[in-house]
Amino acid sequence: MIVLGTQAHGATKRRPITVMEATFYKGEWMESGDDPTLSPTAFLIEQPPNYTLLPHFHRQNQFQLFVEGSGSIGRAALGAVTVHYAGAYTGYGPLLSGADGIKYFTIRAVLESGFTAVAEAKEKMVRGPKRHANSVPVPPLSGPALAALTRIEALTLIEPEDGMGAQLTRLPPGAPLHPEALRGSEGQFLFVTAGTLQHGGVTLGRWENLFLSAGDAALPLRAGPGGAEVVAMHIPFKDAAYA
After folding, report:
1. FRET partner for 113 with CA separation of 20 to 30 A, picked from 2, 13, 87, 226?
2. Mean pLDDT per 10-residue run, the chain (243 residues)?
3. 143-236, CATH topology level
4. pTM over 0.85
5. Domain ranges for the chain
6. Contacts 24+ apart (CB under 8 A), 146-150
């Protein structure tokens, strides 16, 4: 399965949502139905300034990609670009936004809506392994710096383990990208954080993305004329304890 997430789609689906009496904005950049086993989604959350989102958990494995603004999650600093992973039924937070707010994508291989606050719904927590990981912020390269690259640069954001991991790849203009599947992963999400990425006849710009399920071969991927910076997030299968 290959699914694209685009800014145009996100703009048509952007809407205000109320979270604990505060107004957030949510834009659905990637949608693929509601299949209970594989329905990749990616939506952009715009959290208002100086707001504390209380600790909570979800029923599905998820990544969050922080792309603009500043804040913190627990004791870890957030900024562009930071990757956060929380496994199913793993509580995390609080998530605090800075003076300019913070924007982040929530990314899952299986559709889910809403969240469960840890303090209010401990009875809904299911026993099983808990998993959490966070990268340090890595600011995107500027346009001129990206265009001046002469070789591919790769940086590990979250060490790969048991089907989960995250990497950042910087590509010189026109360089190919060959996504490699991570053993034990359900698939990978590729997000453009700077420059452009060519996917067949489609050009993906800043924050646009695609999902590639394990075992599927992507169409040729290649950096655009100004180079590309791409974050790959490999999402593992949900543990059998939560089936």
Report:
1. 2
2. 95 92 95 93 97 91 98 95 96 94 97 71 78 96 97 97 97 95 93 96 96 83 97 95 85
3. Jelly Rolls (2.60.120)
4. yes
5. 6-134, 143-236
6. 146/170, 146/194, 146/195, 146/226, 146/227, 146/228, 146/229, 147/173, 147/195, 147/225, 147/226, 147/227, 149/173, 149/227
